[in-house]
Each structure stands twice: as structure tokens, then as C-alpha cells.
Structure prediction request, 328 residues.
Amino acid sequence: NTYKIILINPQAEKYLGVKKDQVIGVKTFEDKIKQLPNFKKIINKIPPNPLKLKTIKENVLIKTPKKKYLQVVTSPVYDDRKTFLGFVKVLHDITKEKEIDQMKSEFVSIASHQLRSPLSSLKWLIEILLKKRIGDLTEEQSKLLGQMDISNERMIKIVQDLLNVSRIEEGKASLELKKTDLNKIIQETISILNPQAEQKGIEISFEEIDLPEINLDPEKIKIAIQNLIDNAIKYSKEKRPIEIKEQIKDNQLLVSIRDNGIGVPSEDQDRIFTKFYRSEDAKSLVVHGTGLGLYITKKIIDAHKGKIWFKSSDQGTAFYIKLPTNLK
Prediction:
């Protein structure tokens, strides 16, 4: 609790490229520690007020003595009387997992790019047939082509999600900020998704406010809004409303999207923004899905220096987006 290092085991010495004699008895904020680059990286999450500390997980890249990715878990230590004694940092070598994840990302990127062209060609060919440009169709032929068109659109959506993930992870999803009418984006998104809502007898209400144009990346924000409204429709019960509301406070815009659906089970809530994750309840209700929509949405909101969170019960879920109105 005095920020003095009292223990470092041999494996931590090996990971960090130091000897215990260099660090035992030294306080974490002293220049001697700051001059050790690996130590500097793993101590920067120790808060100045330890009483507010909760367990923190972070991934740190160590370049010497050997390149490694470490997961660093920082936790407070208390005695039986809840007296604060100090901190413990546990280092896990996650290099192999990182390398495998990188290989998976590269595969997804290559596969997605290769799939996009044939799917676009197939979409064009189906449209030619459905518009009867090369001859009339029987009712049965039109029905089958319509089903093909729906399946193809679903594949295109999956590929687009995979490409968005690839761009995010490769650092290529930079924002193109411009003055944006968010109300217009929400209205357009509702119009696009209304036919899907009407099939379930769902009414989408939007209580918009007089909103100035704010700096956003309109294409990316549209993806985020569409993902949230699309999910609300998919997981809502039939003939139950979806409510979208806005408010501005302290230069922050808050948008809420509330459904009356199945809710997110408590055991799944910590993983809801994780890539490829779908709860068992979601899978049973909606068979098709990649588990990428909320992951992409969170990355988009984070890039806008905003926040996204949700509240859920078996009566439904409300997602909240907070965006700065003065983003530069």
C-alpha cells in the first residue's frame, strides 16, 4: 500500500527482462522503475486512489527480451478486516492466442474479399431475372428467385460485417467526420427496417428533439444505429413497440433504443459486445446471425469517443448511446 515492490517471481523476471535486485524495495513511481520500459508499461494502471480500484485487465506488448503479449490482471489485496494491504499483478503469456487470433483475422479478411465479387454478380443476375428482362417467369420461378434473393442479401450482409471487422482490426476504419443530421439517419434507418417490423406487428416510435448538426462519420453511425434497431426488431415479441428517444445534456447526445423482447440473460451480459458471441436464447429465437453486429457497433461508438451500454430484463432491453456534440 506504499507502492513499494515487495515480490517478483522468476517467471515475471523472465517476462519483463529484469532481476529482482533491480526492483525489490523500489516504489513504482520512482525514476529507477520508469527507466525499465517493460515495468513502465505494466504499472501505468495502478490508480492514485487505491480505494477505488476494481480488478483491471489489460493486454500489454513487451518487445524485449523477447516479443510477447501479456495479459496483466491488477487486483487489490485486503486482509480479513478489509484493510487494504497492496496490489498484486498477475502476468499471463497470451502470445500464442494473439498469433492465432491474427491468423483468423487474416483468413476472414481474405475470404470476405474473395466472396464479395461473386455475391454481387449473383445479386445482379437475380435482379435481371426478377425484372423479367430476358422473359416472363412462372409464379413458382418468381417465388424461388425471391428466396434466392433473400438468401443472397443475407450472405452479402454477413460478408459486409466480416469486412467491417477486418477494417477495424487492421486499423483501417478511420473516421470521416462531417456535419451530420442524426435525426435524418435515424428516420432513414426506420424506413428501411419498417417492412421487417411490420411483419411482426411492431410499431417503431421516434421521439426526436431539435438537434443541431454534429460532427460524425455518417456512414459508420448509420451502421451502428441500423444494427441496434435491427436487433430490437429481431428479438422483440410480436406486436410490442420499440421506442427511440433523444436528449442533450452537457454537450453530450444520448440516444436510447428500447424494445420489449426476450432480454439478455444475466450470465451473457458481460460478453454481449464480444466478437462472434451469441447467447443461446438469441440463437433459439433467430437462427441466422454472426454475433458481429454489437461488436462493430461498440467499435464505431468508441471511435467517436462515445459510450454504449444497456439495461436488460426478461421484459426487454434498452441500449444507450452517448456521443459528444463537439467532436473534432
